[in-house]
Structures are given as structure tokens and as C-alpha cells.
User: Which sequence fits this backbone?
DNA sequence: GGAAGTCTCGCGGTTTTCGGACATGGGAGT
DNA sequence: ACTCCCATGTCCGAAAACCGCGAGACTTCC
């Protein structure tokens, strides 16, 4: 049950120290998805959910977006802050994702702090779930959220990458 | 769980011998919905389903579409054949709706014949269900399908209107 | 006998409902 | 220290209910 509102998205691939990432942008230069290449099928699933009817074609992302991603991995960890993102999702999820972008590189928050930040201090677990469903990894920094006791708890791209990203941001 | 792809639809009203009809068209002149004014809430519901995120504003439909509808009710029962329609719905539903448009004005089919026409001779009841969920009444002529024994069985806009439409088309 | 009405059951796609699971954390009990 | 329990929003899968039907068996009533 879907309607057909044709829209063509562009799928680019960028090499990084933690493996190739897939970068999906739309006609207006907004980022629609970012994920690691070894989880391509999951990303497709998310895309189908968030942009029903859209078709995805291989191509090159706008230069500014590509460059920002590359600069981030080279050490300029603030390079992603100016990028525009666009997602589907429920009201709640969008609120969570917006809150994520407010966490500066180099810092972390607990799931509890995240829940509190969006005004639903008791929806801790729900916030964690929404976090895990973030379709735009790295740019929407879901990796900056960790357990109250300091454990990394989980990451859709693999805990190793979460650790790497956090170290990378702290180093910078 | 919906994404936001803004699209504005136009809602027009046309007077007919069987009551006012609501006529929804999109920016490209395709018909997105048509229903009788006394079932407005149901139409809104269908629209929300088939065009999530779209907003509907009162206005005037493209002249060609309006004129076609008026000509149909004046006796030119083929006037609707050239109109473009656009719907959501499942694969199955769309197949059924396409098959409906192939039934010429003045003729009827049974639910069984309809099911057979789409290649699923045993999906009789499912075809009936899809028939009833047609969002574009009259133009997609779901009223031309009747029971195997000749009874009219049902019509979302009321059996009376179904009878009137069939008589009208036979007269012409 | 036979035409016409009733009842029963299976058909197949969609929708609704319901029960879990989940990238947590705080409090209470042992 | 460790275990158990609960709150919270969403997704997912399974199961059941729903129907704009129709064929076949069975009655009824001339």
C-alpha cells in the first residue's frame, strides 16, 4: 500500500577509514541517507520506508556534500554540521534525530539525557529505539549516545565503528 | 509513519442529477479522487491513504476535466474515457481498477468476469472488495459490476445511484 | 418436474489487532 | 552487587476478521 510519487535519488560511495559508506542525496542537495556499504540492504529498506516510490540511481553526490564527508573523516569533525538532511519518520523520531544534531562532536550523551532533552524524560527506551532507526548515520550523530554507565551498548554499523568515530572526534 | 512530500490537490464541486460530486485533481491535471458530496469524510480518508502528506484546497479543476464530467451527466457517456487518473493502492487493486476502465459504458460485468479478466478467476470476492475501494467513482466505473444473478449487490454511493448510472448509460 | 428462493461454505486480498522485541535507566527488594 | 520490574514509542510478524461473490445443495410452492 503505497502511492507513486516519482522522485529520483542519487547513490554515491565514499571511501573512509572505517569502510566504504553509501551516501544518498536528493535533487535539492539534501542528504536522505548514509550508511556503511556492508549494510546496503538495510539502507534500502529504510529508504523504501522513508521515501516510498522514490527510485535510487548510482551517481555522484553534490560536490559540497561529498567534500564535507571527506573532510570529516580527515579530521575536520565539524564539517558535517552545515549539511541539510531530510527524513521521513514519525514526529517522535524526527524530534529525536533533531536533538542528536545538537550534540557537538567530541561530546557524548546518555540515552537518558537524550530523552530528557526532547521533553520526554521517561521515554528512555523509546528514544534508544528511535536512535537506532536513524537513516543518516554519522551526519546525524547517533553514535554520540551511550549508556548511562559509559558502555557503548549498540550501533547499527557495528560497535567497532562507534568506538572509532568517538575516538576520532575526541582526538580532533 | 509517513514522509512529507508536499503536494497540493484541488477540490472542486460539480452539480449532477444524482447530487453534488467532489472532484479532486492534481497539478498535472490527473484525477485523484471523485466521490459524492454526502460521503466527503470517506473520500478524505481514502485520499489520506493514497496520497499521504498531500494537502487539499478548494479550487477549480482543469476546464477539460470539469467539462468531461458535465458532458457525461448530460448524456455523452463516453466523455470520461480520455481522462487521466492517478491512484495509490496495491498492485492488485490497481489491476482491478484498470480492468474496470475497459468495460464500455452501457455494458456490465459480473464480479466473476471481472476476476477472470485480471487473471485470478478465483479471487472473486477480493475483486469485489477492491472494487468497493475505488477512490475515483464514475470515471473508474465500478458501478458497471453486478452480481452473477443480476442484482446490483452494492455501491459505495448508494444502490440508487448505481441504478441511475447504469440506466443513464443504457439510455445513451 | 421445475423455477425461484435460502443456506452454507470456500475463495483470496486487505485491514485490524495483538503480542513481542528493542541500542535504557531508575527504584525496590535480597 | 545482583536481580526483577516497570515505563515508553515504534516496528514487525502472525493470526483473525472482514467482505459490493458465487457455486452447489436443499426447500418451497405451483
Assistant:
Amino acid at each position: 500500500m503505497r502511492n507513486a510519487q516519482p522522485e529520483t535519488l542519487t547513490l554515491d560511495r565514499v571511501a573512509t577509514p572505517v569502510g566504504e559508506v553509501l551516501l544518498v542525496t536528493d535533487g535539492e542537495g539534501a542528504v536522505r541517507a548514509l550508511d556503511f556499504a556492508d549494510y546496503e540492504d538495510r539502507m534500502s529498506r529504510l529508504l523504501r520506508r522513508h521515501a516510498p516510490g522514490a527510485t535510487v540511481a548510482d551517481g555522484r553526490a553534490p560536490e559540497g556534500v561529498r567534500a564535507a564527508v571527506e573532510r570529516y573523516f580527515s579530521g575536520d569533525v565539524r564539517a558535517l554540521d552545515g549539511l541539510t538532511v531530510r527524513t521521513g519518520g514519525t514526529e517522535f523520531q524526527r524530534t529525536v534525530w533533531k536533538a542528536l544534531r545538537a550534540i557537538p562532536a567530541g561530546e557524548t550523551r546518555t540515552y537518558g539525557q537524550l530523552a530528557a532533552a526532547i521533553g520526554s524524560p521517561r521515554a528512555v527506551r523509546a528514544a534508544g529505539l528511535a536512535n537506532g532507526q536513524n537513516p543518516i548515520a554519522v551526519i546525524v550523530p547517533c553514535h554520540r549516545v551511550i549508556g548511562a554507565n559509559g558502555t557503548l551498548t549498540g550501533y547499527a554499523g557495528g560497535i567497532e565503528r562507534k568506538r572509532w568515530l568517538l575516538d576520532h572526534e575526541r582526538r580532533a
Observations:
- The first strand of chain A starts at residue 8 and ends at 14.
- Residues 131 and 142 of chain A are 6 Å apart (CA to CA).
